[in-house]
User: Which sequence fits this backbone?
């Protein structure tokens, strides 16, 4: 076979059809751009995490514990000779000069930490001399918020320190993490003076090691089990970075899927355009066969064309993708605990070009197969017959397409079942849209308004005349609208969820770490500010001693145990009360309101604890409360809605048992204005330096900010899908341009006015736009409802925005694209148009 | 004289839904090498179907076609295409030029398919013969109907065919242009010594050929030499 002739023919034919082929290419470009930019970005992320592994932790390894290390743990810690240490806790701080208070994470550091990476401060030398000068490094954003400068003072508990400088970055911390509780670093020698490390306060001790030559794997294997038994934990920089890598892998998979949807949408565009393209080429193929071209030759001419477009589209898409990924570090800066250096690697680029090639061929395969079965007889007459062989080939082609799509989604997700679910979901969505489109056409046909006016009849007829694009357009419009609406609804479900607790009845200021002797005074401070006490919850900390008569020490070494290991070292914060809260529901057993201390204590545990501890109603659990063992029995299992921003507990004791145990309190109130909230916080911090106040209003603002940033990224990806959808739309509309022009010119020749032609086209595309976008929104409503019920477990109140904005907006867009198709007809004479397009 | 086309007991039936539609029935005739032969008959008499079967564009339901010594029933689609490429030329009523190719490219395609080195030179020569030397780079849409048919004539002769099938070659042309194209066709045919099988319902045109086959209702009515008519 003469290959060069095939290429020559493909080129000759492509030259004359370049406008149409460019549109096919545009369909693939955006999808590839999305996939390549995300692939490159994911790879860069992984590389950066691996490369910056040490500076992510700031040390080679660390040992941490949430209590003062016991003797055995301390011996291990000391034997390894820590190079730096830290104690950190959450507390309120005050800025006396600015009259402001804020909940922060205080890190008392001793030693030259970090050993890797930089402690970035402003002024720069503050990082080096804060230890000697005895100053505090305060989160840079916090400094801006409170208009603080180096030299101002900060009151932490009972001490006041000068601010040495603004803290810009420290290894292992992301901007988002510090937006909840900003960081303040002080020399550890001042920690005792704050008097904040009292009983009940949450704290963490960390010991940092710089041992670049240590065998970290061996060290972890040897020491981790011993330390775990002593309630401590050893973390190496490699295990931390691989954990981090896995976390971002999930984000990457999600973004990859969004990109894949854009690519799929592009492929639908390819399939629909190639379908019409080949349909129009059938006569030419028949002529070629008549002149002696074989089936293979005529098939290959068009395969070469499509492959060429695929490679070129893949290449352009890849270049755009490479350019776009430069944007990601800027957008995601605040989510990453490290600086991202972008490097361009060959793999995603090769993959982009290959993907462009494979996806174009794959999705053009069905229409391309038709070239094989075109009979030369078509030159003389239209046969339109499809042989049995052609059916078989179509079936094989469809199977190849499905298999290939599955392979690609597996490659993106690395999970057989997820990939299957994803492909299943895509096919169901496509299937629903296609069936509804077909059903609508059937309805229009069946109940065709015969009595309607000329323009209405003509426009509706266009929906099912030969070579119509109704199904493809409805699928493209529907899918695009579906994606953007689902993203919109999901965002609102998440926002609604976060907004819970913002109602007047629920608390928005929670004071924690209130010592028993301070409760009365805190309550009177609330009252003096004219604020109600909505909750006064006692907290008792304890650890598990045994479960079902097996001690935690035995359980630690029992490899057959079904009990989750986190429980064995966990410090439980429990409470006691006689009634359930709104966020609780009894699933099994009976709720015991009150009992005396001498009976077996009837506790209630949360559903997840029951599962992780492998216990059920009636099982025995022994707790160690500050050295006193308490024999308990599970009386009930509760379902707890952990998502509410109110204190929830996995273990609840009945009233009458723990009242005399060492405890501290959580008190909640509702402050109607920000000003009254700030006043109360100031007063509480001044009077009770150890008490911390969580301002849920502020927390909500932080959550909203994070959600906005996340939704920006999601919207950015959805934008690819929408843009691809629009290009598919333009492509689909343009492929039927010539036929439409011919019809419009004929109508004009027969005496139709411009206004009538305009109305026919406008009505047709308006119908397609409204139906497509409505279908998309309705499907999004269903999927969001399912997401709300089964994933977020929230009631779903749909927002009206998609109906008010997306529906008219998308319909209008479709209308404009449709009308642009016949602009030429309206502006010139029929003869001129026919000559130009003949 | 040798027979270039031998048709024996040819029949063609199409299924239309549950019905069987017989278009041709028991057709037998021969065409001699170098002969000019016309097939005439009213619309629906089966002329075009017969031409399609004779040229190997379709397969018969019954009977045999022997073209250039090959029994078409024994050849597959690609082998028939190769046979056409080497031995057959076509001229159609609606020209059937490839719309995305220029006049020159349209004429050179059959030779290029053979892998001929001089395809372009030969195509230029033929276009000059049909009077289109100055239109070689024009696309079909930029040519008039008569010019398009002249390109089609040039293409039909480009591969030096042994037999040329013409389906109503003047059907889409006005009288004056039509007679010019016919003159050109006959001149080139005579020069190349090609066998010409032409479908027409123009009896005057048919009278210019040596043999006329009359079809009606899918059956042969008469098959006579023109001199006898």
Assistant:
């Amino acid at each position: 076979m003469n290959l060069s002739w095939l290429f020559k023919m493909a080129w000759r034919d492509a030259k004359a059809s370049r406008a149409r082929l460019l549109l096919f290419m545009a369909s693939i470009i955006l999808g590839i751009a999305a996939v390549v930019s995300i692939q490159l970005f994911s790879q860069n992320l992984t590389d950066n995490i691996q490369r910056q592994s040490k500076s992510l932790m700031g040390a080679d390894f660390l040992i941490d514990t949430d209590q003062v290390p016991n003797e055995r743990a301390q011996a291990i810690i000391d034997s390894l000779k820590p190079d730096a240490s830290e104690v950190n806790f959450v507390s309120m701080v005050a800025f006396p000069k600015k009259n402001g208070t804020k909940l922060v994470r205080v890190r008392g550091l001793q030693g030259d930490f970090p050993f890797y990476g930089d402690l970035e401060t402003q002024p720069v030398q503050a990082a080096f001399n804060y230890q000697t000068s005895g100053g505090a490094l305060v989160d840079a954003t916090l400094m801006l918020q409170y208009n603080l400068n180096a030299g101002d003072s900060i009151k932490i508990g009972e001490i006041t320190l000068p601010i040495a400088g603004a803290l810009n970055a420290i290894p292992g911390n992301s901007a988002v993490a510090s937006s909840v509780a900003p960081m303040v670093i002080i020399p550890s020698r001042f920690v005792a003076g704050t008097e904040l490390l009292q009983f009940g306060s949450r704290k963490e001790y960390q010991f940092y090691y710089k041992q670049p030559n240590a065998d970290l794997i061996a060290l972890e294997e040897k020491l981790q089990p011993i330390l775990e038994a002593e309630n401590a934990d050893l973390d190496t920089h490699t295990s931390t970075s691989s954990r981090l890598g896995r976390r971002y892998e999930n984000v990457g998979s999600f973004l990859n899927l969004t990109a894949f949807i854009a690519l799929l949408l592009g492929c639908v565009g390819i399939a629909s355009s190639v379908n019409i393209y080949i349909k129009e080429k059938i006569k030419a193929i028949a002529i070629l066969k008549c002149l002696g071209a074989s089936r293979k030759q005529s098939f290959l001419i068009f395969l070469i064309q499509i492959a060429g477009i695929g490679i070129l589209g893949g290449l352009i898409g890849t270049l755009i993708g490479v350019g776009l990924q430069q944007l990601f570090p800027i957008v995601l800066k605040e989510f990453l605990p490290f600086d991202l250096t972008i490097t361009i690697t060959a793999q995603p680029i090769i993959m982009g070009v290959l993907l462009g090639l494979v996806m174009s061929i794959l999705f053009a395969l069905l229409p391309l197969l038709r070239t094989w079965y075109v009979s030369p007889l078509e030159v003389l007459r239209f046969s339109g017959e499809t042989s049995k062989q052609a059916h078989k080939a179509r079936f094989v082609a469809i199977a190849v397409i499905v298999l290939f799509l599955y392979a690609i989604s597996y490659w993106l997700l690395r999970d057989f079942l997820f990939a299957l679910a994803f492909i299943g979901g895509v096919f169901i969505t496509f299937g629903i849209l296609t069936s509804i489109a077909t059903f609508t056409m059937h309805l229009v046909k069946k109940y065709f308004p015969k009595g309607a006016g000329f323009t209405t009849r003509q426009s509706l007829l266009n929906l099912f005349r030969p070579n119509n694009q109704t199904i493809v357009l409805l699928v493209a419009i529907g899918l695009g609208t579906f994606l953007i609406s689902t993203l919109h609804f999901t965002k609102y479900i998440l926002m609604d969820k976060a907004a819970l607790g913002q109602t007047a009845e629920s608390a928005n200021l929670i004071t924690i770490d209130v010592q028993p002797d301070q409760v009365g005074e805190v309550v009177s401070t609330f009252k003096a500010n004219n604020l109600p006490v909505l909750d006064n919850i006692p907290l008792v900390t304890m650890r598990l001693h045994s479960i079902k008569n097996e001690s935690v020490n035995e359980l630690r070494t029992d490899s057959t145990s079904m009990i989750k290991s986190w429980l064995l070292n966990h410090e439980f914060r429990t409470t006691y009360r006689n009634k359930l809260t709104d966020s609780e529901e009894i699933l099994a057993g009976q709720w015991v309101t009150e009992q005396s201390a001498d009976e077996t204590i009837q506790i209630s545990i949360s559903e997840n604890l029951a599962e992780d501890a492998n216990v059920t109603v009636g099982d025995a659990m022994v707790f160690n409360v500050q050295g006193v063992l308490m024999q308990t029995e599970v009386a009930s299992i509760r379902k707890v809605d952990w998502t509410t921003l109110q204190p929830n507990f996995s273990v609840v004791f009945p009233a009458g048992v723990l009242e005399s145990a060492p405890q501290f309190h959580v008190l909640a109130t509702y402050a109607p204005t920000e000003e009254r909230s700030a006043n109360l916080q100031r007063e509480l911090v001044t009077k009770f330096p150890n008490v911390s106040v969580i301002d849920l209003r502020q927390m909500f603002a932080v959550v909203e900010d994070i959600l906005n940033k996340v939704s920006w990224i999601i919207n950015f990806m959805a934008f690819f899908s929408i843009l691809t959808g629009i290009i598919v739309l333009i492509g689909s509309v343009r492929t039927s341009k010539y036929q439409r022009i011919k019809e419009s010119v004929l109508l004009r020749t027969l005496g139709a006015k411009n206004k009538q032609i305009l109305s026919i086209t406008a009505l047709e595309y308006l119908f397609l736009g409204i139906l497509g976008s409505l279908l998309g929104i309705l499907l999004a409503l269903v999927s969001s409802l399912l997401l709300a019920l089964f994933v977020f477990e929230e009631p779903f109140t749909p927002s009206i925005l998609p109906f008010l904005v997306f529906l008219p907006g998308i319909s209008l867009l479709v209308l404009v694209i449709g009308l642009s198709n016949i602009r030429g007809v309206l502006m010139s004479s029929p003869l001129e148009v026919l000559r130009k397009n003949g | 004289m040798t027979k270039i086309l031998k048709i024996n007991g040819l029949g063609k039936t199409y299924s239309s839904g549950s019905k069987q539609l017989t278009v041709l029935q028991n057709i037998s005739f021969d065409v001699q090498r170098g002969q000019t032969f016309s097939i005439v008959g009213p619309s629906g008499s089966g002329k075009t179907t017969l031409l399609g079967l004779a040229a190997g564009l379709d397969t018969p339901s019954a009977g045999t076609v022997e073209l250039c010594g090959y029994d078409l029933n024994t050849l597959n689609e690609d082998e028939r295409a190769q046979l056409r490429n080497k031995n057959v030329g076509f001229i159609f009523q609606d020209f059937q030029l490839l719309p995305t190719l220029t006049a020159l490219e349209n004429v050179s395609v059959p030779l290029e398919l053979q892998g001929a080195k001089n395809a372009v030179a030969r195509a230029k020569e033929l276009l000059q013969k049909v009077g289109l030397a100055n239109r070689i780079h024009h696309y079909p849409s930029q040519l008039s109907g008569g010019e398009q048919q002249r390109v089609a004539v040039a293409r039909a002769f480009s591969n030096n065919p042994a037999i040329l099938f013409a389906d109503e070659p003047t059907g889409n042309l006005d009288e004056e242009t039509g007679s010019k194209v016919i003159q050109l066709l006959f001149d080139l045919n005579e020069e190349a010594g090609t066998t010409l099988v032409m479908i027409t319902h123009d009896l005057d045109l048919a009278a210019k050929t040596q043999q006329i086959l009359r079809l009606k209702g899918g059956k042969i009515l008469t098959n006579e030499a023109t001199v006898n008519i």
About this structure: The two ends of chain A are 34 Å apart (CA to CA). Chain A touches chain B at residues 2, 5, 8-9, 12-13, 15-17, 283-284, 287-297, 375-377, 379-381, 838 (CB under 8 Å).
